[in-house]
Amino acid sequence: MNELNEITPDISVRKTGKRDQWIIEIKNPGKTIAAAIKLNARDKNTKAFILPAFFSDGYFNLLPGENRKIELCLPDNPPSFDIVAEGYNIKN
Asked: Is the pTM above the cut of 0.90?
């Protein structure tokens, strides 16, 4: 595990038809597994965590080339935000 290459996942976010829900699509473009990924929503300006943030999936792995859709619920009228992926071999 300590010798896994670092991965920078591709992440896109789109609004659903519901007022407080988004769909996050995350893909592993690398040639090795992306291990123990956890997503967070952060304010674009302050970089503070936006809480509460409810993701449909917690810690997960992505095989090379694999993608996943995750639902996100945030409080009403959240500030402008970024989705940040953290994990065992995720490049920050």
From this structure: yes
